[in-house]
Amino acid sequence: MGIVYKLKPEVIARIIEEKKKNQLIGCRKLAKIIYNQFRIKVSKSSINALTKDAGLSMPIGRRPKNPAPPFTPAANLSAPVTSEPPVKVEQPIILPPPTPEAIVPIAPPPAEVIVEEAAHAGLIFLKAADYLLGGTSSIAEIVKHKVSTQTEDVAGKSEYLIYEPLAQKSSLEVEKFLQLFAAQKFNISGLEFYIQELQFKGLNLDIGRSLTRLFREIRCVRIALSNGNILYLDGQLRSTWPTPYIPYGFSNTLHNLKKYINQCFLQENPMVFYIAPDDDAPPEDFFNFIFALGSNAAQISTLTFCTEQLEEAEVMAVPKNIQYKFIFGLGPKQFGGCAQLRILGNFKPLPLGPLGQELYFASGEVTLSQVHLNKSTALMACVLRKSIDGSNNFILITNLTFDKASPEEIAELYLNHWPQYEDTFGDFRRKIGLFAYTAENYRALSLDDFVPGGKSAQDIRDIRMLFGLYLRSLDAYVKRYFMPWGYEENDFPEMVKWFYSLPGKVTLQKDYVAIKIATPANYPRKEDLRYLTRRINEMNILLKDGRKIWVSN
After folding, report:
1. How many domains does the chain have?
2. Which of 414, 289, 284 is nearest to 359 (CA)?
């Protein structure tokens, strides 16, 4: 395959053109045509490899009924394929007009439980970062109408290229793992031709620009109420805050946060926050917020997404005269006498989910009081315990009524977002404490940080190099947001060794996909791996068919 890279684009275009005109033409005759026109010798093996990558090689014994439309080359295309900064091409290769795109339905979740062994189960940690950043979907949107590759294969080929450096020893295993999460099965044959097409079209510029924009981390959402009050949410929706100076560890990607906010404010799903502000009494900003969500008095006017530097990234208007729903966690002694709990029913076992937690729940009612505002409100509650006769472990408060959602459904909604709520509280407090020591040295993530020579990602012409940069940025995202503090100093090969190359099992259920990571005997980083899986589960990552991803070890 190495010789294909040495061919000039116009030579490749001519070979593809002739092959598309006549799929019965042989390599020997194609080599003669190229020699007569360009006075260069091309081996039959190179021509065969090129036509195979382009999906034009014909199985033995079959004849095409309808030859493919011709591939028309540009008149003057002499820019070589290199990893140097791009040379502007005045006349790119002109592909035949695309046929109307068929609507490919998303494959339904499996009816029965399917369990698959996965040699590269650890890739889920990088894939989780990609789901949050939206890189693969962004690339697919740019590419799908501009190349001849089948639409359903574009996302698959693009995603495979991201993880290709990890597939050097077992590319089939990496492809198999990625296929488990794909909305439609994809085909990675013709990968070299796909790369060539991306470069001929100059799509490296669009892809580089798009990937660079993904790294807009949102530190907070500024909420403006109709009565003039302002309050803030952190990017991960852990709580409400009276100030925008929120710890950086609670930031989120613009792509992921907007997706979730849209579900809550446009599709009217309940907003699920980890916990009410950690205070002796309900703060005024928290009280104003829950009143603004659930009443018509002082409504939410706008949501402003603010970057790490507190600059405005986007402003979103909110539909009026709608009562939005919320669920907050509350510690059993939080807010002291300002939170009065009344249990209304008996405790019942909560069905075990993918993580196998044993919990009990009961319905209840909580009355919250705010002395300075001279206000109080009664909210429905779901009370959680670890044993049926134990003490109350955690309280979920909501403005959902039990005729709209049962206590069991409220518990499931909350635990889908915050499954290990006790462990999450410890992490919550640690990140607040670390912020005081690390804030001065904080630096926002950027794709350009991984480009050698101080260049920009938009200067990279080599498609494989560009996808490799994105892989390194996914690793940086994992280390910053999913790993214990201090892991940002670990290099990529070390992360591959201890985490990304771990095997496991993937269980495909109707409602979720569970990945159980396996570790070798005497594996020294079990606690760090447990921390990693718990942080990922908190991000509520959903596949296109609505199934949630759960990770355990």
Report:
1. 2
2. 414
